[in-house]
Structure formats: structure tokens, C-alpha cells
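Reopening this ticket.

The earlier resolution said the output was attached, but the attachment link was broken on my side. Pasting everything inline this time so it's all in one place.
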Amino acid sequence: MMHVRKMYNGTRKIMVSLICGYRAGSHAQADGQAALANHYMRLSPVGVQPHNRMFVFADRYLQAEEIKTWGEPSELPRYLKKTQSLDNKLQTAADKIDAFNVEETSFGWELTSYPQRMEILGVVKPFLALYEAANEFETKRHEWLFGPRSNLNPDDIEQEIGTFNRTMFKLEKSFSDCPPAYSIASKTRARVENMKERLPLIHALCNPGMRQRHWDAVSVLIGRPIQVTEQSTLQDIINMRLDEFIEKFEPIAEAASKEYSLEKALIKMQTEWAAIVFVVLPYRESGTFIFSAVDEIQLLLDDHIVRTQTMKGSSFIKPFEEQTRVWEASLLLLQDVLDQCLKMQSTWLYLEPIFSSPDIVAQMPEEGRRFALVDKTWREIMRQIQGDPKVLSVLKIDKIREKLVKGNELLELIQKGLNDYLEKKRLYFARFFFLSNDELLEILSETKDPTRVQPHLKKCFEGIAKLEFTPEVMDITHMKSSEDEIVELKDVISTSKAKGQVEKWLLELEANMIESVHKVIRESLEVYPNTTRIDWVRQWPGQAVLCVTQTFWTSFVHEAIRLGPSAMDAFLQENNSQIEEVVRVVRGKLSKQNRTTLQALIVLDVHARDVLTALIQQQVTEIIRLL
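Inline output:
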């Protein structure tokens, strides 16, 4: 191991001598190379492979020193290629050094830093930057001068020339002590400055907005015809010797730029709309479609209308005035059509379920006929939009605006007729005013099914939650409260006799409801004296219980006042006993209906007892004093 280490160190020493020899002269360099070769020959017999990395560094150093002698601008491509090759080799050497250091680590040796590589790299990098920048400028310059004029962008050229100028200025300063490289940098910078002087001409006549009309204006200005095509080059324009007219070209160039900006804006808007489509979704089981998510389309449409109208007001719009006017008209028509479509869709969605009911159509035949016409128009329009959903394609539908306007006019007439129809129903049965239009329409659209009234009964009759119908003929026999308290109707109501006119049997229900409650109160009043009070209160509906108990309490108070103080004291004791009895029952098991009734009864009984107590305390003896 020690023997190998000594041989390795010997190789390093000879490598250093080789590099130093290069600096001293060619003879010393030759001696160093020979010594290194002899040293490797001595290493071979012991089985150690020669580290030709040392030869690599020597060769790279020689190439780096040679770069300093290059100074011919015409050889730039060759210089760049060789310098890039050397830079790549140095990078490869760096990878090999890393691998070599791994080997040294494996042997436990001290890592070698190879400062020569960094020294060579420090020499190569500035030259590489010079050759890359100079070569890139020459390539660009050739493209600018000899490429098609239509490919030139004056603003980009000006920016790139500024970048090249700053770069070459820095490189020129950095190579002040290396004449060949300084020569390349200064000559390249001079060519950059020369190109910079051409910028006014480039801005004036290489404008992408220059059209034949502008070249005609230039011909008039200089007094001779000039022929320029899209394939003409900057060099062709330079050869025309137009420098003396550059200042006079500025208004033409400015107009070309502004017109070009307007033209691009117009084309950009048209291109955007070409890709925009409507999103249409199937509507339930109707067999047609409706619009979905049109907010973004509306926002874009509003924005583009404002942009187009702003463009129309520009003094540079004249070349595209007709095209812009047509585009504005298309956008305004699209906006009108879209508004009409959304208006029709909104109304159609509201009316479609209504006029899908045969009962409504039968009661409103004229409105039903009108809706059928609108429905046909809507389905036809949506069928075409679904087939070609591009937004602009909607303008191609034959007479679409006229169809939509006429459809919306019919829908307004239908809505007016519908409102008049609902108003008549409400005037016939006033409790319909408690219902919204949608709720009332839900009732009227299903007249063959009287039970469809059930969900809305609570709004029409505060005390009625449900009605009980006979299974077959759908006659109404009982009414039920929210507490499930059932009251039998005095007379059975026949819904079939109303012949689908819900308001008729509801009006009959209203009168029957009052009569039925009167009947129950009268019957409970008759049996009250002959029934134990605590049993009686659980046998009759709550309204009857509260009404009848108050009636008898008032009657008993009158009688007690007439009989005197002792009778009033006795009746007070009876009141207290009744309250205690009801409280005891409430604490036990009761149905929901009975519990609600007795809780209300307790409140009234306590109030009645308090009133009676006050009468006793005030020593009321005559009925006249209560009036």
C-alpha cells in the first residue's frame, strides 16, 4: 500500500513539473512530458494503471493558453466550437476528479484538490462568454438583415441590441489586457452600435403593421415608387437609401402601429368567440334543453362590446371601420338574442309545469294554445343550439330574434291571463289570498285529486290541518286539527259536484266548518250538567270545552252573586276543587289532544278563580256593578 502511495505522489510531482515547464518554455515542457511518460512506464510492472488524468490537465492547460491568442472575428464560429468543447472536457474532468477522490477515500488517502482545473476554468469562462455573445449577435444580425421583413419586431430588436451593447461593453473592459480578445469585443461592439443606428429605420419601415397603403404613402413622400413585399429584407430597405426621410416616416409608422393594434384586437376578439360554446343541459323529462352557466359569456360579451365601441371612436379605425361596424352589430345582436333567450327560458320554466296540467289547459284554453306555440318555438331553437353549441352560431338561426321577441310577447299575454285567472279564483274564495301563486296553481293544476289541497289547508284555515275523504267518491266527512283532534262535519261535502272547481267545495267547507263547530258546542253544552266535569272535558273537542266551561262559569257567578256572599264563597271552593282535579289528571297519562285541552283549561280556570276572588274581596252584591 505504501509503495502504491509513493508512486501516486510521484505522478503528481511530475504533473506539476510539466505545467511549470509549459510556463518556462517548450524545452522544459518536452522534458516534463518525457519524465511523466517514463514514470508511468515504471508504474506498469507493479500492476498500477497509469493515471492519464495528469496528461488530460496538461493538455487542457495548453488549450486554455492557446485561446488567448485568438483574435480574428471571422473565425468566431470555430473559436466558439473549440471553447465549448474545452469547457465540456473540463466538466468531464470534474466528474473524473470526483471519481478519483472516491478512490482516494477508499484507500484512506488525503483528497487531492486539483487547483489546476479551477485555474484553467477561470481562463476559459470569460472567453466562452465573449465568443457566445459575439457569435449570437452575428447570428441575430444576419437574421435581422436578411430574414423576411414580416418576421421582424422592432421592439424586440431594440431590446436585444441594448442587451448586446451592455454585454460587449463589459467584456471589452474585462479583456483590456488581452489584445486579441479585446479586438473581437471592440469590433463586435462597433457592429452592435452600427445596428443600433438602424433602429429608427427599423421602427419606421419594419413595423409589422405596415400595409400596402402605408408603402404607397411612403412612395408619395419620397417622390419615387418603391416595391416592398412580405419577403423583402431589412437589407433591401437599407439599400433604398431612405435614411434622410426617416423623420418624415414617423407619422406613417405611428399610424401603422395604431392600426395594427386595432386590427390585432379585433382579430383576437373574433378568435376568442370562435371557441366559446353554450352549455346546455336536458330539462327533466321534457325532451328539450335549457341554458346553463351563461354568466361568463355575458361578462365577456359586455366587455367586448365596450372594447369594440371604444375602437370605433379611434381616429385610426378607418381602414377597419366597416369590419368593426359589422362586428359591433354582431355583438349587439348576440346580446339581444341572449337576453331574449334567458327571458324566455325563465318564463318557460315557470309556465311549463303549469300548462303540462290538462286541468289548467281546460280552464284556460286560449292561454294553453299560446303556450303550445311558444313551447314549439323554444324546443326548435334549443334543438339547433344543442346541435351546434358555438355561441356565434346562434346568429345563423333563421329569424331567431324575431321568433324570440314574438315568443316573449306571447308569454307576457299568457302570464297576464294567468294572473287574471288566479285573481278570479281569489275573489270567489277569499282565503286563496293567503296562498302564493305557486301554491294556488299547485291546487288548481290537480283538480281531479282533492287531496292535493291538504298541504295548503293550514294557510287557508288556521284550525284545520287535514280533511278526511271517503275512499272512492272523495267526499269530505271530518276535519282534523294539528293536534289530531277530529270534528265530524255537519253535512258531508261532495267534491265531485264541484266538477273540478276547488274553490266551490272549499267555500262550502268554510260554511260547514262553522256550522259543525256550533253543533259540537251545542251538543256539549246540553250534556254538561248531566256529566261529571272531569269526564266531560275529555270527551269533547278543546274549543267546545273552553267555550262551554266559560259559559257555565259565567252563569254560576251570576247565580252566586244573586244568592249572596256565602254562595260566592262556596263557588270559589268549587273552583279550587275543579282546578286541583284537572291538575291531578294532567299529571297522569293523557293523549296529546286531551293534554293540550286541559292545559288551556287550567289557565282559564285559574283566571276565572282570580276574578271570582276579586269579586268576593270587593263585596260585589249586584250584577249592575259589573257593567
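Reporter confirms the inline version is readable. Residues 243 and 303 are 43 Å apart (CA to CA). The mean pLDDT is 84.
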